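Continuing from the previous page...

OK, I double-checked the sequence for Fe-S cluster assembly protein SufD against my notes and this is the correct one:
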Amino acid sequence: MQTRSERFKSTNTSDFPTVTGREIEWKFSPIAKLRPLIEGVLDGGAWHYDTVATPGVSIEWVDRADASVGSAGVPEDRASANAWSSFERALAITIDGDEIEDLALERSGLDGAPRAAHTIITAKKHSRGHIVLHNSGAALLAENVEIIVEDGADLTVVSVQQWNDDAIHLASHFARVGRDAKLRHVSVSLDGDVIRINPSVHLVSEGADVELYGAYFATTGQHIEQQVFVDHDAPKTKSRVTYKGALQGRGAHTVWIGDVLIRQSAAGTDSYEQNRNLLLTDGARADSIPNLEIETGDIAGAGHASASGRFDDEQLFYLQARGISEEEARRLVVRGFLAEIVQRIGSPELQKRLESAIESALVPEGAQS
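Thanks. Re-ran it with the corrected sequence; updated structure tokens here:
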């Protein structure tokens, strides 16, 4: 039996066999649409981004031979390895300061050609930072994002996917969290044809703490996938994983797989993961698979939960009984359902933009084909 921690890893595409769609990491994914990123040639050149200079935060392009490349993790699937083999330079974002440093990085204009990208985010010792990576426009993109949180640092990384309707985006996020350091990772996926964001977090030193949040809204024919892995490898580490999604329309499909490993070396670990899905119409499908591996009995707590269901009729009745239309009542319920995650972003302006995008995606159930 293969455990999550024993998956094969390599930075070379050729080390992985050809993907058939029957593999454990690909069996829920629309392989035909992803084939150009899994097997094809990718443009690994530098890409354009927009941002505002922020004191305490540096941004630079570094060579693929830079010592920071590979600090947080190594690919576990062929698409991630293809992106790793193809990128020419990595975008390195470094936070170094004891005040909270905020940086918003906007990426668009990737033109829809098959591309690879590599980003490295480093929070230096005892630094504090809030980084927002906002994606929009056309995309056929496979990328790797490395996140290094050094001892005593406190970092929030928000990844927002608001691509064009035909965009395809595969991303592996690797994080390494040091002693008494904290990482908050928030993924918000709203627009695009296929979006697959897989965060993997390694808690390597005592007192490391991670919070992983995800919000997603899938509409007709859209596929949104997340495969989460938290590796507790040191004593007194803590993790909280909460992903919530709403689905509307025939063929809307979401996948959430949550793997948590508590190693024998991780005495005193406290871990909990949960996934909630709200199905707004017939014809939508949500796959939710929590997995928990525990190799020591000396833990503070460990648990998981998963639930997928339709609207609560009593909630709708309560709102309609107070003069609110059914359509508006549905909007209010979905907003409230996803608000727990959106509010974790920490940026009021971005939060309002995302709430507006969620509302605009909601249409009366009868309008869905």
